[in-house]
Design brief:
The chain has about 250 residues and is α/β, with parallel strands linked by helices. It is built from 8 helices and 7 strands. The protein has a 7-stranded parallel beta sheet with strand order 3-2-1-4-5-6-7, sandwiched between helices. Helix 1 crosses helix 8 and helix 4 packs parallel to helix 5. Bound molecules: nicotinamide-adenine-dinucleotide.
């Protein structure tokens, strides 16, 4: 896959999906910025990947802070002079239905899951426009395509916004050579779902809804990111790619 020498920023890089995405992209020859607010985990990941000879750097970021995005962009430009791809992967899920959720929790989910993508685009688009090329790969969810009955409404609303923010960036900025695509995984066993999976019935429900009869894996998602980041996918713009074993086809 053609991603050699690309500069790629990955948010939520310390997490279950992000760490595997970042490692795969670096293994395939990209220079990868590991962005996360987990500083200890980020430094450990950076050390591990560098020991394997990979070109990565960690930078602490709160993806909801505009000033942090400016400093991330400045670091990337200092290091490689470019930003080819931003993988907006950081996300949270406060597992409460509407009646139990308070406005601050709703606002936090919106800020982390979708406000972050607005800020990443605001900071990166001027650079990408000057380059005449750039790509956003935004991590949505099956919950950005359907009203998933097991999932908090705030999560579904935020991921639905990711889907259309992505399409909207793709349509406005294509003339500048800037593309945007979203990825929509079904349930993947990561720290995000481990608390929920302590209830065997909930795990069973998540398995039973997938036509292929298994959960998604971090590798399933990472391979989709690799493909979208590659030159081979250069005509894909504004797509919403399910990685869900057929769940949203039903
Ligand atoms: N795990 C799943 O079942 C699943 C399914 C569909 C979509 N997703 C999406 O995939 C993405 C990654 O999920 P995951 O399962 O790897 O989760 P995770 O909890 O393992 O990792 C999330 C990472 O994001 C970081 N993060 C959270 N808030 C941040 C902030 N404000 N600033 C910077 N970093 C922040 C965390 O420190 C963590 O490293 C999320 O967007 C999630 O919504 C996950």
């Amino acid at each position: 896959m053609g991603i050699d020498n690309k500069t790629i920023l990955v948010t939520g890089a310390v997490g279950g999906i992000g760490s595997v995405v970042a490692k795969l992209l670096a293994t395939k020859g990209a220079s990868v910025g590991l962005l996360d607010f987990d500083e200890k985990g980020g430094i450990a990941l950076e050390q591990d990947l560098r020991k394997e000879g990979l070109d990565v750097w960690f930078q602490k970021i709160d993806v909801t802070k505009e000033e942090d995005w400016h400093s991330v962009v400045a670091t990337a430009l200092e290091r490689t002079g470019r930003i080819d791809v931003v993988v907006n992967n950081a996300g949270i899920n406060i597992r409460k239905p509407i009646e139990e959720m308070v406005m601050d929790e709703w606002a936090k989910m919106m800020a982390v899951n979708v406000g972050s993508i607005f800020l990443s685009a605001k900071a990166s688009i001027p650079i990408m426009r000057a380059q005449g090329a750039g790509l956003f790969i935004n991590m949505s969810s099956i919950c950005g395509l359907i009203g998933h009955k097991y999932t908090p409404e705030a999560y579904t609303a935020s991921k639905g916004a990711v889907t259309l923010l992505t399409k909207s960036i793709s349509s406005r900025y294509a003339k500048d050579g800037i593309r945007a695509n979203s990825i929509h995984p079904s349930t993947v066993d990561t720290p995000m779902v481990q608390q929920m999976f302590k209830d065997p019935q909930k795990k069973r429900e998540r398995l039973d809804e997938v036509p292929l009869g298994r959960l998604g894996t971090v590798d399933d998602v990472a391979q989709a990111v690799l493909f979208l980041a590659s030159d081979e996918a250069s005509f894909l713009n504004g797509i919403a790619l399910p990685v869900d074993g057929g769940l949203t086809a039903c």
